[in-house]
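# step 3/5: fold
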Amino acid sequence: MSFPYRLIATDLDGTLLRADESISERTREALAAATAAGAAHIVVTGRAVPWTRHILDDLGYRGLAVCGQGAQVYHAGEHRLLTSLTLDRQLAGLALAKIEAELGPVFLAASRDGLDGDVLVGPGYRVQEGPLPYVFLEDTAELWAAPLTKLYVQHPGLDDDTLAEKAREVVGALVDVVVAGPNIVEILPLGLSKATGLSLAARRLGVKKTETIAFGDMPNDIPMFGWASHGVAMANAHRDLKAVADEVTTSNEEDGIAVVLERLLGAA
């Protein structure tokens, strides 16, 4: 049995993972069948390595993963960072000051660089319930004490899309601003995206973008869809991603990845 793509790129939250952070047996089997047929599976996630590693280990995943919105290329089998790009803290501070001057105070969190980098959460920032660890800071000045991969911002009165759009208008020449999930608006190094990280990883694997199928659910997956040959949005995806997708599958709770992989395996 053959498979029409050499690389399967999957987002995690809202895509490969169900709401309880599990991966269904059907999806595991479909990925195993596709990899047995010659494709490589690569996880491409906004999560930094410390929030991704336990999922990869549970999958028995030994290959490369793109983490931190493209900032980190991680070798899961060797538990080693191959590349890591950090956010210029001086530039990020300037961008933040401009955002607050225009929109008023925002709530902050940040992801520290490295294999064991903490996620730091400042006062007022709403953290999603779940098992992922974070460190609460009384004083947000401590956010800037060590290298960061990204900042997270929340606004007391603006929804995610509006906050990201208005912030982009103010600081789009300094940093990138993306919506990565519910209540997750991120400030990233300018030009960084899942596409830049995926292209680095694909080059290491000797795979071309024309040989890649990608799955995702949020606007931060748009660059990855633009890079890959075929982009598949989940039924639960953000409208902006659906607008640029080549197809829409069922939701992450309904084995949307497996539905497409099984079809492609059956047609091979």
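# step 4/5: annotate
Residues 89-103 form the longest helix (15 residues).
# step 5/5: archive (pending)
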